[in-house]
Every structure is written in C-alpha cells, then in structure tokens.
Design a protein that fits this description.
The chain is an alpha+beta fold. It is built from six helices and 27 strands.
C-alpha cells in the first residue's frame, strides 16, 4: 500500500472514526483503524462490534493495499505532523508514515485480523437536516434509560410518519421518569417505519457532525437507511453502521395529557435559576423541589427544604391561568428538560400533584415537548 494525502484530510478522517475504537483484552484489533485503498481514496474503518464507522479520505493511491494500526497512536502522531503532504507506505515491518523530514513506522496487524464489516443495501432512505438532527439528539438523549432490565428503553425510538405525521419523524426517549419528544421534517421514502436506535450510535453521529472544522464544506443533510436489525447513517463521506435494539417501545402518546387544570407561561431563565437555588436545599437521594402555582397572584413559587442544610423559596411572576396547583419534581430531570430548550419562555402544563407535568418551549419553531413524572406526595 502506498497512499498520499494532506495532513489536514488525514486528521479529519481519523477524528471521524477513531472515537469508538478502544482497548479490548480479548480482541486487541478493536483498538485499531483499518486502512484500505478504495476507488482512488483511502477508507478508514473502526468498530467496537456494536457500531462501525468508516470514512473516505481523498488523496492519491500509488499502490493498492490494506493494513490496520492503533487508532489513537496514529491520530496522536499525525496531529504532530506539519501541514502538507503525508505518505503512508506499507513495509514489511509496519506502516511507514512520511512527512517532510520525518519518517516513522507504526506496528500494526494484517487486515485479515480486522472484523468483517457488514455491507448493507441503501434503499428507501430518510433524509434529515444534519444540524436539526444533531440538535434533536441533544434534546432527547438525557431521557434514555441506563437500566439493562428494559433494553428497549436504552435507545431512541424513531417514528418516521405514523404518529409523527406525514413527512415528519419523531425522536422519542424515556426512562419511565421523564419523556422527551422532538419532531422534525424529513424527505425521502414515503413508507412509515419505527425503529429503536442505540443512543450511543446517535451520540456518535452527532459527534461526527460536530467534527467538521469547516462549516462551509459540511454536508447539509444526513441519511438513514434501515434493514430488519441494522441501521446505516451516511453523512458526506462518513458512514456509521449500528445494530438496532430489538423489542417494542411503549405506546407513549396516551401518557401525554391533553387537558390541563393549570397552565403557566414563565421565563425559562428565571425558572432555571430558581430550580438551581432550590436544588441546593433538596433532600439528598430524593432531589425534590416543590412548585406552587397561584393564578390570582400570577406567581409560581419554587421551594425546597432539608433539615441539615436549610430551606429556600423563590417567587416567579408569570401568566398563570386555571386552578391553584402544586407539584413536586426531581430537579435533575427538570434541569435536563429546561436545558434542552432555547426559547425565552416555557409553557408549564399541569393537571394535579399526582400527574405528570408537560413542559414545552413557548413561541419556539421547534416541535419539542418534555414530560416529567411527579414525586408523589399525600
């Protein structure tokens, strides 16, 4: 193998693929990046057996070939090279890296020891705006469950069409204590579908989108292709392959209330400050803060108390309609939802102290809603 390209292109490719590689005692090759010349370019591939990422790097192929080298070591070394031409030459004792006056040999493994990566047919794809998808992942990922007892909740359910509406996709996640839903527009296949994508695969795709240094050259769209149990995400010259999560995601729509006894429009920043203050005096392990809504006075009171640390209370002015109400929430779950919104104001909807609260960004163009279960009290 003999391949030449710029140091900048090589670093960008390695940044795309090297993140999922890591040490594995049983399979050391999983810490490597596979380098393979292909169609006048160099294809870089890494995998952890659950997710695989590959990226095409533009350059000039002098001699065809393939070889794998430690991904982190390769990235760390290439990052130290000066900008300009870099040559990769496969020798008997390893991969020689030439740049200017520097010559280095990296010890690696033959390509045959690298796991075979699946090649999936890309049919009936769904096209989304890359920036919108990255934003959507950040809005729902915190609600994904970390409990292995319910693996179907350890991913994000993606509904293309169906409950999301024609030409729309809903990204939904829940850990049974809160639920986040973001709806976006997509193009492509008109067939409806529902799949559960591992949250790590989506986080990795969001990281890849964020890895582009030059926004001018960043692809505008990202494409999803599904088979029965696998997913391919393509973004420019990068491809991510992941297994899908088997199981049935709960029918969550009936869980979201449609009629409410109390609604409040409040400043998001003021609520966040009040929640942070109350969190300092919330009971350890319970993380409880208490909301009181007074429509007549037009105030929302946020308070907490702990025998060991003290107590605090903050009153926030807002537009409150309906009945006087109260509610106890976990401040960590609430903070996650508020941080996922970018609106100046939020709309807080409530039935009673034993029912979940629905929070949506007021006046935002984003179709986003966040449901939080209450900490029940008598």
């Amino acid at each position: 193998m003999h391949f030449a390209c710029t140091q900048e292109n090589l670093i960008q490719g390695l940044n795309m693929v090297s993140h999922i590689s890591g040490k594995n005692i049983n399979l050391p090759v999983l810490g490597n990046v596979l380098l393979k010349t292909e169609a006048g370019s160099l294809r870089m591939s890494t995998t952890n057996l659950e997710i695989a990422v590959n990226c095409l790097v533009r350059g000039k192929v002098e001699v065809e070939g393939e070889y794998s080298v430690p991904a982190k070591l390769f990235l760390d070394y290439v990052s130290l090279l000066p900008s300009g031409k870099v040559e990769l030459i496969l020798q008997e004792d390893g991969l020689e890296v030439r740049s200017g006056e520097q010559e280095t040999v990296l010890k690696g493994m033959v390509a045959s020891e690298f796991p075979l990566l699946p090649k999936l047919a890309k049919e009936k794809g769904f096209e989304l705006k890359a920036i919108d998808m990255k934003r959507a992942i950040s809005q729902v990922a915190s609600a994904v469950s970390t409990s292995e007892s319910r693996p179907e909740l350890m991913g994000v359910a993606c509904y293309f069409g169906g409950i999301a509406g024609q030409g729309k996709v809903a990204f939904t996640a829940t850990d049974s204590y809160r639920l986040a839903e973001r709806i976006m527009i997509y193009k492509g296949s008109t067939e409806e579908g529902k799949w559960i994508i591992p949250v790590r695969a989506l986080n990795e795709s969001a990281r890849i989108i964020g890895s582009y240094k030059d926004e001018m050259n960043m692809p505008e769209n990202i494409d999803f292709y599904f088979t029965e149990n696998q997913l391919v995400i393509t973004f420019g010259n990068v491809e991510l392959i992941s297994r899908l999560i088997e199981g049935s995601f709960p029918d969550y729509k009936p869980l979201i209330p449609t009629n409410f006894k109390t609604e409040a429009i409040l400043s998001r920043s003021e609520v966040q400050k009040a929640v942070r203050a109350a969190s300092l005096f919330a009971r350890q392990g319970v993380f409880d803060i208490h909301f009181s809504f007074d429509p007549e006075a037009g105030t929302c009171t946020v308070q907490s108390a702990d025998q060991g640390t003290g107590k605090t209370k903050t009153s926030i002015k807002g537009k409150i309609v309906g009945e006087t109400n109260r509610l106890t929430l976990n401040f960590r779950y609430l903070n996650d939802g508020l941080s996922a919104m970018d609106s100046t104001e939020i709309r807080f909807r409530q039935i009673d102290h034993n029912s979940p609260a629905l929070i949506i960004p007021e006046g935002s163009k984003e179709e986003y809603q966040y449901l939080v279960m209450p900490i029940r009290s008598n």
